[in-house]
Every structure is written in C-alpha cells, then in structure tokens.
Amino acid sequence: MVGAGGDAFRLDINALRALSVVAVVGYHFQISGFAGGFVGVDVFLVITGYLMTGKVLTDLTLGRFSFRDFSIMRIRRIYPALAVMTASSVVAGWFVTLPREYLKHLLQALSALTFVSNFAFDSDNGYFAMAAQTKPLLHTWSLSVEWQFYIWMPLVASLIWRFASGSKSKISTVMIALQVVAVLSLAWCLWETQSDAIGSSFFSLRARAWEPLAGGLIAAAEIRRRSNGASKIPWLETGIVATVGWALVAVCIVYPLPESRWPGVLTVLPILGAAMIVSARQWTGEASLLGMSAIQRLGDWSYSLYLWHWPIWVFALGWLSLRGYGVDATQKVLMVLASLALSIVSYRYVEQPIRMRRDFWTPRRLLTSSGAAFALLLGFIALASLTNGFPNRLPDYLLPAELARRTNTPRDECFRNANSTKQAAETYCSFGSAEVAGKPSVMLWGDSFANQYLEPISSAALANGIHGLIATQSACRPFLDDPVRNSADQQPCRDFNRSTLDYVLNHTEPSIVVVGGNWGNALEVSSLADRLLSSGKTVVLIMPLLNIGFDLPQRWIEKQVRVGGAIGEWRVDADPSLTMSGFRAEIAQDLHKHWDNPRLVMVDPQSVVCEQNQCFLVRNGQANFRDTAHISNVNAIQFRGLFDGAFRSALRAESKADKKLD
Predict the structure, then answer these.
(1) DSSP character at residue 434
(2) To bridge 21 with a disulfide, which of 108, 151, 302, 587 should be the other Cys (CB 3.0-4.6 Å)?
(3) Residues near 185 by Cβ (< 8 Å), separated by ≥ 6?
(4) How far apart are CA 88 and CA 550, in angstroms?
(5) Residue from 268, 308, 271, 281 nearest 221 by CA
(6) What is the DSSP-derived secondary structure letter of residue 348?
(7) What is the pTM of this model?
C-alpha cells in the first residue's frame, strides 16, 4: 500500500485498515467493546480517498494518467472478490430464502455488482423495509459509495488539470476544487442528517464525499509540498499526532455513538483521527508495533474479511433462528473464524492471482470474465422474475407466510413516506364512491396503523355510497401538534398533521374523519377526538389491535420448519401485554364523556381476531399479521363488517345533525 506520492508501502495505513475491519466485524457481530465499530467504514473512506487521490494526482503530475487504466486498476482490485462473494450469497439464498425475499436479494446482488447498491438500499430503507439482518448484501453500499467516488474524483481532477496552467498551479487549483466539494458535502451532510426522517444520508455519496476527500486533501497537500521541494511538516509528522489519532479512532470504536444520526457532526471525530494517523506517517517500519505480522496480515485480508463477514452473519442468524437457537459467544467465535477463513481463501485464490498475474488476467480477459459473470446473473434474475422467485424450491406450506408479508395496500402510491412525499400527484387521493355534492364524505387520517385498513374501509365506503380521501403518512400518528409535547417528533410529521387538521376544519367535507395510529398515550387520542367533535365532525376511532412483539410470519415459518409441516391455526392467550388492555382502558376512560355522543363511533378490530380470551395469529392457514403488529393484507377484508357498521352509524349521526339544523 504505497503512499500518496508513490513512496514506500505504508504499514501504518495497512494497520489502520486492520483496525477498521476488526471494528466493523465486532460491531456487526454484536461483540462487547465495539459499540461504535461502524465508524470503521468511515475510516476506510479516509484511507481510500488518500490512496486514490494520491494515485490520480501523481499520475497527472507525471503525465501518465488514464481514466481507463485507473478504472481497470480499481476493477481488478474490487470486482472479482465482490463477484465471488455475491454469487455465493445467491447460491446460499436459494436454500434458505422465501421466493419474494429471494427475488429482492437477486436484485440487490445486481445493484451490488453495478455499484449502485447504496441507492437500492436507500430506497428499501422505509418503515416496512426488511430488517438489516435479513439483507446479506447490505454492506456493499459502502463499496458503491467508494466506486462512485472513483468516478467523479479523477474526472474533476483531470479536467481541472487539463485547463489549469503550470504544474504547481494545477495542483493548487485541484486542491481548491476538492476543498470546495468537501465543505459543500459536509454542509449537506449536517443539514440532511437533521432534516431527513428516513436516514437517506447514511447511504448518500453527497453526504459522505467529504470523508474520502479528507484523505484526498492530505494526499494533494503532500504532493504539492514535494513538488515545491519542501520537507515534512515538523509539528504534524510526529508520534504525538499519530498517538492522538489512534486514540481518537479507538475511543469512537468503543463508545456507543448514535448510528441513527450518522453521518453527522460526531462523524468528524473518527475522520479527524484517521486523518491524523495518515498525516503523521509514524511507525511505518517493520520493527514497529504496527509492523507485526498478525496486524499486517489482517490489513491484507481486510477487504475480503469485510466482504464475507456480513453474509455469514445474516445466513447463520437465519439458520439458528429457524431452529430456535439464539446466538451465544461460542457461535460468534465460530462465525468470526468462518469469516476469517473465507477471507484468507478469497485473498489467496481470488484477490492475489488476479492482481499479480497480469500476464494472464489482461484487461480484456478481466473485463470479459466480469461481463460474463454479470450476464449470467442477469439471466438468472430474469428467470427468477418470471417464476416469482422459484417458489418450488421450498415446501408449499411456507408460502402463505411470504404472502402475509406483502405490504402494498390499495392506492399504496398515496401513502406518504416519513418525509411526507408520495408517488401520487394529488394532495389527497380518493377512495370509495364518486364525490357527490351534499353527501357526507370521509377522510382516513393516520399512520401505517390506519393505512393498513384501507382495503376494508374502501370496500365499506363504496357499499355505503361514501366518497373518501386518504391522509396517511409513515411513522406519523395523528395528533394535535404542540410545540412542547411534540418537540421530539419529526418536523415532516408535525407539518403533515397541522395541514391535515387545517384542511378538515376549514372544509365542510369531509364531515366524517376516520383516525387510527400507533399512539403513545391516551391523551393524544382524546385531545384529537375532542377537537374534531367540537368542530362538528363525526369521528370514527380505530382502537389499537394487538402488540405481538415478534415478526409473526418469520416465527410461523420457524414453527412449521420445526414440526416439518403446515400449522393452519395458531392462537395465543389474550394477555394484557398482547391486547394492550391498560392503554385501551385509558382511552375509554378519557373518552367516557363522549359515550352519549352519536358522532363518536368506536371501531374495535380485536373483536375480529380475538374470542373467548384467545387471539388468532394464524387462522384458516393464513396469517392475520404481516409483522409485529400490522394486519396482513391477505386477511384485511375480514374487518369490512366493522367499518360497514361504523359508516352506517356515522351516516345516521350526520342525518340527525342535519335534521336538527333544519
């Protein structure tokens, strides 16, 4: 691993790679002492920025830079090991993944091999996205960010180099351009992390470009200094600076940093630590601590270790879960050893031969082989799409569990994400009957716990001749916005609730408001109902259903695998934690003052899935829930009778109110 100016192999950087990958593996494997281990990825980005920017600027200075040669060099380094790992995950997924999830895994494999997986996982990062520990290729997002940096950085540097005059002036101009981009990227990162409810900045090159550029600017400064004939900077290239850098990175790895707001202002700390280590250039000799064979070998294997550790964790976790086992220290040790063994094999038989045997692995042969592997995967994905994920691979009795996981509801394009954007252009999409002047209409207002009933609500509205509007947003329960009480809620959610309330109160129709949500306290429910009722609206309140506490389809699969056959019915005791009886009682108590008000209509979904002190999680071979709490779309229509009755009651209340006005 040569330095920025093509100087001797940097043992300190290779050791930093070793620490980074150990941190990432420790964090992902949930090993004590690595609470902030995810910062290893940020440190990797500093290293790659330093090395690759240095390579590009050195070649430009010597007049030998070629974007084609640079790209081939990066393909040779990254693609073969990535392709082997990706193909292996596709094979492993064949045996353990449900059809729909397998098809999604194949598409993610395609995105990984085209270095756009950061976009793919960002789009699959919503409320109903699969859990991270079910995505074997999730870790490839960082490789995609890295590759995208390899595209624009050399293009910007080479274009500036072409049009600037004078070798020294060219380097300075490139540095200025990279500094501007780094500042803009950091500013974007800080702004987006605070304003983005979904967390897209985590996967975004725009929000992370400043990280590799931190290393890149160090490389550019070194090359400029050498071109000016200047010696090293005494105060910078010291053991004290290096020691502080190593300590800063180590503390970030150990300390439980807030990953949910990453990258953000605290990301400056590991980036600064890595930059100090790279700049100090200390302990680079083989006799130093960093030159120890074990550390250097880990640095050599770091790329392959990063590639293999995550799919091993995901597939092992799935295998253990199916058989009812947890993950203890022994199993974690075995997974670490398996990851290490596969990384050594990958390094020795994939990485090294392709990097070193250039007489055989010529650019043409390398590109042809990579293209052939990609074409095979593309053809396999096409077959998987035609067969809906090869469902015949698995026993038929497991397929209903997959069906239960479907999250699309009627007019799903109208369901806003957490940033309050949706696919449909209209402000509020319609459902039910056509709008008729003088007839009552309804608005469905709430989060996913309201939106999940859209099918039975739509059907009931159509049967009762009611026109409806959809006002639902992910992770945004309906509430009356209060600057103090709701200060912790996302701003897009607060804005959405304020605008929805304003619309309802400032229009005669909709006169009926159906509200449902994942409320945290009864006061939110009663205060919203009070406000709507006092404004002359009829309120259809959807009471909380069940809090299962585990992924029902997954647990159903596990139970069926263990017994080796179908389980067509699964009922559990209706205990207080499952039925949320205490919370439901608080809501009833707070709304007791409205019990004689016909404009308050209560809908209790528990009456459909629970009877005789027991609740059905699975009935008639179909799951009633698609995750830990949301109803399955397969059985959603069973709730239609509730909303039929609710709408009839609401229409009677509207009719009585009209007669009083007459």
Answers:
(1) P
(2) 302
(3) 206, 207, 208, 209, 210, 213
(4) 30
(5) 281
(6) I
(7) 0.81
